Amino acid sequence: MSTLEDKVLGKTWFYPFRLPSGQVTTTYDGGALDAIHATRLAMLQSALRTEFGDSIAERSVIDVACHQGWFSTQLAQMGAREVLAVDARIEHVADASLIRDALNLRNLHVQQSDVHALDPEAVGRFDIVLMLGLIYHLENPVGALRTARALTQRICLVETQVVPGLTGVVDYGSYRFVRPLKGSFGIIDETEETHGPEASTTGICLVPSLEALIWIMRKVGFRRVEILEPPQDAYEQLRYGKRVMVLGTVD
Fold first, then answer.
1. pLDDT digits (tens, 9 = 90+) for 64-95
2. Would you list the domain boundaries of the chain?
């Protein structure tokens, strides 16, 4: 076994990475969360087959808020021409870099950046943009979706928690003038958890309703916006619509 594998296997991970030796990393809570990763990956792979066929060999990918690089490594192993994994936390950048090296993925590059600091003019535009498990940890999810659109050359996949939606109309400056609600946001408090590796970096989180997410994605410039169907054996939150994965295209 390589020294890199020893280093990987010496810690507990959020994701079950399979290493060249065949060993799999130990995950949090005895693997209780492995099912959500499997469901997300199945939905992602299904969407990629629909959009690109059996190969993504000529495709470029950016994984925004890549965490430890699970989805980045999956797409790199699927043969993507180039994968850029980006995360705001230096510890996640270190983990993703370690996994990349242990798997010898030369098509995977890792960079530290907050989503709002990403400049499409500097990093480029990508055939596949991943924004999985991010926007419900942000105080500016609309700005993040604008960035995702600016980065997208072909498709963007957004996966997020959603909250119950509000419908109807509200007085808007006067009882004589009303405006329809296009969706809603729930405020989640993570201000005491910003030190946690899976929490917000600022603590104030605006979580969209499904209606809000779809409306905003269309308004920031995605031409086609589709809710992806989870598999029958999906992780319970995706199966019951408490989380969703949405595809946006620019063509």
1. 999 999 999 999 999 999 999 999 999 999 99
2. 3-162+210-249
Q: How far apart are CA 105 and CA 97, in angstroms?
A: 10
Contact 117, 90 (CB under 8 A): no
Q: Give 162's strand partners.
A: none
The answer, as to whether pTM is greater than 0.70, is yes
Going from the C-alpha of 30 to that of each of 16, 18, 27, 33, the distances in angstroms are 11, 16, 6, 8
CATH code for residues 3-162+210-249: 3.40.50.150
How large is the greatest C-alpha to C-alpha distance in the chain, in angstroms? 73
Between CA 196 and CA 112, with CA 130 as vertex, the angle to 5 degrees is 50
Q: How far is C-alpha 198 from the chain's CA centre?
A: 12
CA pair distance 53, 35, nearest whole angstrom: 25
Query: pLDDT tens-digit profile of 127-140?
Result: 999 999 999 999 99
User: What is the bridge-based pairing of β-strands 82-87 and 108-112?
Assistant: parallel
What's 150-216 look like in SS3?
HHEEEEEEEEEECECCCCCEEEEEECCEEEECCCCEEEEECCCCCCCCCCCCCCEEEEEEHHHHHHH
- Cα–Cα dist 190/187, whole Å: 10
Residue 122, CB-side half-sphere exposure with 13 Å CA sphere: 6
Element (H, E) at 85: strand 82-87
